[in-house]
Amino acid sequence: MNNKFIVALLFLWIPLAQADVAATTRDDPALEKRAMALSGHLRCLVCQNQTIADSNAELAVDLKNQVRDKLRQGQSEQEILDYMVNRYGEFVLFSPLVKSTTWLLWFGPLLLFVVGLYVLAVNLRQRRRLMQQAPTLNKEEHARAAALLSGKETKGHP
Amino acid sequence: MNRFLLPLGAFVALVIFLWIGLTLNPREIPSPLINKTAPAFRLPQLHESSKTIGPEDLRGKVWLLNIWASWCVTCRQEHPLLVELSRKNFVPIYGLNYKDRREDGLALLKGSGNPYVMSAYDREGSAGIDWGVYGVPETFVIDKAGLVRHKFIGALTPKLIDDVLTPLVKRLNDE
Q1: For residue B42, which phi and psi values (nearest 5 degrees)?
Q2: ipTM score of complex
Q3: What class has domain B33-174?
Q4: Which of A46, A62, A89 sits opposite B30 (nearest CB)?
């Protein structure tokens, strides 16, 4: 009896939770889509590896509401990003700006790749040179080497 | 020999970078407000809702703005330290009661002492957003010209007060 009551209570919770989400998306699905897209570019500072779109932290909810309000007031995406940066700093942008202090961050992987290519090229060239310097075999030695490699010649082995 | 030195050097460099990375606190995000005019707000006072308060009222003096809430455990830990600081009459502390219920905020001040000259009541947290608040407590130092000069993220500690806050306030008072 008591358990059933609790289960019934749990089911009562579900529509309430949904009502909360619905309230934010109710009037304008297009605006909501823009708000969520923009929120995907903003970092939740409480849960730092999430965007505010993904986060349900209280601050993230507040900031999402700010984004919605400002879009509704007709502000552009860039204006809203600037507003956030002015208050929370550039760290609030989920992808860092491309500027001199972030060049290493943005182009570092490419730099590593180029260095890797260079090291590979140097190594390959060295190896080719070693191959060219390798002693040449006469016909007889060649035949013996081939036989050894194919495992046919066992002479000399214990 | 060179074959081993090079990877070893790269490894050591990596370890040094990671070591430095470990000592950094990712929670401490430098505030873009530093050396900029304190964001304006006009909010009701916590004690007297009919009166308002804003940063403009405090031009001409060095003051602290401490963001606090009764639901914030760290603020409660910080609280005695603020009370102690306020008793020294060294620098006026103003509070921003952030996303709190008025009666809860008042009850906390009644129970554990009120370090604030005055607290603003920010029910919706809108002033908090303008100030770039992303956690409580945070403490801002505002100078005579109304510029934000420093931001403490998280609770103040006796060490922070002695090493950072006190010299800073002295310097700003002399400006």
Answers
A1: -140, 105
A2: 0.78
A3: alpha beta
A4: A89
